[in-house]
């Protein structure tokens, strides 16, 4: 019998059709938002799943799904996986690195530009009919080219942002990461490794592109915001929990930080109500990887992972290593 696969949220119909050539597929194409209990019920008789980052795969769910062998996340981030619990249960996890790197780096830069140059604030002003005349200081923002960029989390997306900044905008690039890049890569990105405090104090703009783990919950809180320049902008394209949203809203409201650009939020799809009232924050609904081409590539890679896994070829982009599996180079962060 064909393995049974659950597609947990709506994806491209072509991807569902492709999966159906290999598997018995049940797909949530109506995009019903399932509770954890409903997800466990839907998954109880399945051998594999395609998830989108909005489904939590933890010990409680795994206990209810004894047949489950593989979960392919259609996202590069996989903080929705309890990786230790999955490994303990013998469940393979995969993600979608590489295919979204440059698209996501583009968007990080777009948010930086929009926040620093007050683009969405200007559009709201214009649409509201408030534009009466030229004015010397109308929506005057902060400089992007030639300024200093701080990147926290220097994986592939961080490196993509560094290249854009250094080569396209003549920016000085500082970065902070758990591990230092090899010298050749540092040189190519024209990026200098510094401590987090040095980065926060010196950067004119800070972009967050680090994976969300318990260790970096609220990596940016009141203390870190206090170290930043009051003229600085903060961009988050990683995960909402990396920033203390209440502390950020207070800093933006009180003029201790000039602007922010946020694509991710602590309680997605809910947004902290204070952020919604502030003019100096650009808010987007978790769309950094959302181009048609990239979303297709992500869906295809997630499907390819499931197909390769059940073919016995092993997963293409694993995030955990099951006992007895071939060793892989662990490089599947952002
Ligand atoms: C999106 O947030 C992703 O992790 O791919
Ligand atoms: C972030 O990408 C890290 O490796 O710390």
From TrEMBL:
The keyword Cytoplasm is annotated on this UniProt entry: no
Alphabetized GO MF terms: glyoxylate reductase (NADPH) activity; hydroxypyruvate reductase [NAD(P)H] activity; NAD binding
Coiled-coil annotated spans: none
PROSITE patterns noted in UniProt: D_2_HYDROXYACID_DH_1
Keywords: NAD, Oxidoreductase
Matches recorded under Gene3D superfamilies: NAD(P)-binding Rossmann-like Domain
InterPro entries: D-isomer_2-hydroxyacid_DH, D-isomer_2_OHA_DH_cat_dom, D-isomer_DH_CS1, D-isomer_DH_NAD-bd, NAD(P)-bd_dom_sf
Domain D-isomer specific 2-hydroxyacid dehydrogenase catalytic per the UniProt entry, residue ranges: 5-320
Domain D-isomer specific 2-hydroxyacid dehydrogenase NAD-binding: 109-288
Keyword ATP-binding: no
A GO term from the CC aspect: cytosol
Pfam family of the protein (one): 2-Hacid_dh
Family membership: Belongs to the D-isomer specific 2-hydroxyacid dehydrogenase family.
Classification via PANTHER family: 2-HYDROXYACID DEHYDROGENASE-RELATED, GLYOXYLATE_HYDROXYPYRUVATE REDUCTASE B
Name used for this protein in its record: Gluconate 2-dehydrogenase
């Amino acid at each position: 019998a064909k393995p049974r696969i659950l597609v947990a949220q709506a994806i491209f119909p072509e991807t569902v059709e492709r999966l159906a050539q290999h598997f018995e597929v049940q797909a949530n194409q109506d995009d019903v938002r399932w509770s954890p209990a409903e997800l466990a019920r839907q998954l109880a008789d399945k051998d594999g799943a395609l998830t989108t980052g909005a489904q939590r795969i933890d010990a409680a769910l795994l206990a209810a799904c004894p047949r489950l062998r593989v979960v392919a996340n259609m996202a590069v981030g996989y903080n929705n996986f309890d990786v230790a619990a999955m490994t303990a249960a013998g469940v393979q996890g995969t993600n979608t690195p590489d295919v979204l790197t440059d698209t996501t780096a583009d968007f990080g830069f777009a948010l930086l530009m929009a926040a620093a140059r007050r683009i969405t604030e200007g559009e709201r002003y214009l649409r509201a009919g408030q534009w009466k005349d030229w004015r010397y200081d109308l929506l005057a923002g902060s400089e992007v080219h030639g300024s200093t960029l701080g990147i926290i989390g220097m994986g592939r997306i961080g490196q993509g942002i560094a290249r854009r900044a250094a080569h396209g905008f003549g920016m000085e690039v500082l970065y902070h990461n758990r591990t230092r890049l090899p010298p050749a890569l540092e040189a190519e990105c024209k990026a200098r490794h510094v401590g987090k405090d040095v980065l926060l104090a010196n950067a004119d703009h800070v972009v967050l592109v680090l994976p969300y783990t318990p260790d970096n919950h609220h990596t940016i809180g009141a203390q870190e915001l206090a170290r930043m320049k009051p003229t600085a902008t903060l961009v988050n394209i990683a995960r909402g929990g990396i920033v203390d949203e209440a502390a950020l809203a207070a800093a933006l409201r009180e003029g201790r930080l000039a602007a922010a650009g946020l694509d991710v939020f602590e309680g997605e799809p809910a947004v902290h109500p204070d952020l919604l009232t502030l003019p100096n924050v650009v808010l987007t609904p978790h769309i950094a990887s959302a181009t048609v081409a990239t979303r297709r590539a992500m869906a295809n890679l997630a499907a390819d992972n499931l197909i390769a896994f059940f073919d016995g070829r092993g997963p293409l982009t694993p995030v955990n290593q099951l006992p007895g599996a071939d060793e892989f180079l662990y490089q599947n962060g952002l």
